[in-house]
Write a structure and sequence with these properties.
Elements lengths: L1 H21 L1 E2 L9 E7 L10 E6 L7 E11 L1 H8 L10 E2 L5 E8 L10 E4 L10 E5 L3 E4 L5 H5 L4 H11 L8 E4 L5 H13 L2 E6 L5 H11 L3 E4 H7 L1 H4 L8 E4 L3 H9 L6 E4 L12 H5 L4 E4 L2 H11 L2 H15 L8 E5 L3 H9 L5 E5 L1
Parallel strand pairs: 1-6, 10-11, 10-13, 11-12, 13-14, 14-15, 16-17
Antiparallel strand pairs: 2-3, 2-5, 4-6, 4-8, 4-17, 6-7, 7-9
Helix pairs in contact: 4-5
GO molecular function, one term: enoyl-[acyl-carrier-protein] reductase (NADPH) activity
Family: Belongs to the zinc-containing alcohol dehydrogenase family. Quinone oxidoreductase subfamily.
Keywords: Fatty acid biosynthesis, Fatty acid metabolism, Lipid biosynthesis, Lipid metabolism, Mitochondrion, NADP, Oxidoreductase, Transit peptide
């Protein structure tokens, strides 16, 4: 009888320990050791084979900690730049790749009240290392996203859609009927700009590079809400006034290309307008006509989503949560669609990295 009671007590303790390890970690609770598979790099390099899949031990849970099971994480150009050592933020080695992704909460420390097991969350800062199957971090490192938006939408919402949202909100007052012009319009940010602007009643003129499937791409962007789609060559040869008479001149220009393309956006703006540069894909200096600054009083601004998050997290991380909640609301309402992605099993990671290094590829998302 005593032996049976002892076995029952053992089973009861084991059951409680297993249940506790999946939910809330209380003071003095038994701790279960965890590890994860992660894509690790120990030096910078320009080839995908810099990254290796390794087994990593997870740090111990603390009273403010959260353990996540990563669900999906995109491979973005910024991730490749970090691998190559050309991004403004560089990690300490050994480093886990990936800045963006969505995970599900598995376990929380006993002082964590903002999250609970089962919640979906995204990291708000760059350098998190999302290319892994699990992670342990502080609750303050995370923002909650609703579980009733598409998984690929949740995995990719923290960078590109939020960049588009901020640029449309922060630089000029855009009233319904106002016009925005942008280059790189078929990029993930460009597509988000089109959709969010349409939700605001703002018109968009969207510049793309000429290509064999130009008509197909134009139709795709117009289905998203683009008002006009023109090529760099058309704008260079004819000028905006000869191409489009139906809209007021743009009061906001968005530039992610630089070089001649950025100069074309700048030259198309109305007097007193603002040009926001958030990328330089052409890797060429922005062409700035002196007359645009002198006679048209154009304001030049730059924007980097990572810096905006860091600046605003110091005052109140709820500003970040409010932004993400607003963008998720657009996705829930159908006004913002997730980007068209290629889904890649985690163990085929090299395929996703190689594709992202190449030009004109759709976004690749790792599924854990």
């Amino acid at each position: 009888m005593r032996g049976a009671l002892f076995r029952l007590t053992q089973e009861r303790v084991l059951s409680l320990w297993q249940r506790e390890s999946r939910t809330t970690l209380a003071p003095g609770a038994l701790r279960q050791l965890h590890s994860c598979s992660a894509l690790v790099y120990r030096q910078h390099g320009h080839h995908y084979d810099t990254v290796r899949m390794e087994e990593m031990a997870l740090p111990a849970m603390g009273q403010h900690s959260v353990r996540l099971r990563m669900l999906a994480a995109p491979v973005n150009p910024a991730d490749i730049n970090m691998l190559q050592g050309t991004y403004p933020i560089l990690p300490v080695f050994p480093a886990v790749g990936g800045n963006e992704g969505v995970g599900e909460v598995v376990e929380v420390g006993w002082k964590v009240t903002s999250l609970r097991p089962g919640d979906w969350v995204i990291p708000w800062d760059a350098g998190f290392g999302t290319w892994r199957t699990e992670a342990v971090c502080e609750a303050d490192d995370l923002l909650q996203v609703p579980k009733d938006i598409p998984l690929l939408g949740a995995a990719t919402i923290g960078v590109n859609p939020c960049t588009a949202y901020r640029m449309l909100q922060d630089f000029v007052t855009l009233k319904p009927g106002a016009t925005v012009i942008q280059n790189g319009s078929n990029s993930a940010v460009g597509q988000a700009v089109i959709q969010i602007a349409a939700a605001l009643g703002v018109k968009t003129i969207n510049i793309i590079r000429d290509r064999p499937n130009r008509q197909e791409l134009e139709e795709e962007l117009k289905l998203m809400g683009a008002d006009f789609v023109i090529t760099e060559e058309e704008l260079q040869c004819l000028g905006l006034d000869n191409l489009i008479q139906e809209l007021p001149k743009p009061i906001l220009g968005l530039n992610c290309v630089g070089g001649r393309s950025g100069g074309l956006v700048l030259s198309s703006l109305c007097d007193g307008a603002t040009l926001v540069t958030y990328g330089g894909m052409a890797k060429k200096p922005l062409q700035i006509p002196a007359k645009s600054l002198i006679f048209k009083n154009i304001t030049l601004q730059g924007f980097w989503m990572t810096q905006w998050k860091r600046n605003n997290s110091q005052a109140d991380v709820m500003q970040l949560q409010t932004m993400v909640t607003s963008v998720c609301g657009l996705m829930k309402s159908g006004q913002l669609q997730p980007p068209q992605c290629v889904q890649v099993p985690f163990h085929h990671y090299s395929q996703a990295i190689q594709a992202t290094i190449q030009a004109h590829q759709r976004k690749h998302v790792l599924l854990m």
